[in-house]
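Researcher: I'm preparing a figure for a lab meeting and need a structural model of a single chain. I don't have an experimental structure, so a prediction will have to do for now. The sequence is pasted below. Please return the structure as C-alpha cells so I can convert it later.
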Amino acid sequence: MRTALFSLTLVVVTPPLATLVIIAGLLREKSREGSVYDRILRAWARVLLRVAGVRLQLHHAKRIPPLAARVYAANHVSP
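Model: Understood. Here is the structure written out cell by cell.
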C-alpha cells in the first residue's frame, strides 16, 4: 500500500514542482542557498520522505558548513 501511495505522490507532486523549476530557469533565477530551486527541492524531498514513512535524523548539524558539498548516507536499522 505504501509503495502505491508513494508512486501516486511521485507522479502527482513532481510535474508541478518541475514546472516551477523550469519557469524559474527561464526567468534566469540565480541558484544560491535559499533560492527557489533550493526551496522546491526541499519541499519535494520532504513530501516524498514523509509519504515513504522515512524518519530523518541528522546528527551534528552544526558541523556541516552551510555551503559545503554534502553526501548523505543511509544507515539501516532493524526494528
